[in-house]
Amino acid sequence: MIEIALLQRSAKNSQLSHVFCGVDYCPSEYFSVNCTGVSDVILMKSARYGRMQAGRCVSDYGKLGCFADVLWYMDRRCSGRRRCRVYVADPVLHRVDVCPSDLKSYLEANYTCVTGMLHQSISSSSGINSEV
Question: 61: domain range?
Fold first, then answer.
């Protein structure tokens, strides 16, 4: 099991502890994140797959407002990592799509890069957990 421990910076430290980003990713694109800080890791805030609204990824207006919450999947793929790359036409995302199958869906994802450190808990055969 991997846990993320966030490091809080003191009020007198003027550096920002995170950067917030959110973007629509079209069907032929990749959700691609690379946190640049030495101790920064990705923390997914929200992720929806479907046809939320007209915009850059929706040129045929068909049905709008249909989507599935895919934070569970994007969290598993990206949170706690320094970099992440997910193809928007990923088969897992396509399987959870609730929009009509003849319309293309897109990914709307919000994430932040936070200062943190990874802790790995290792379970031994005796049932005793230790941290690395």
Answer: 19-115
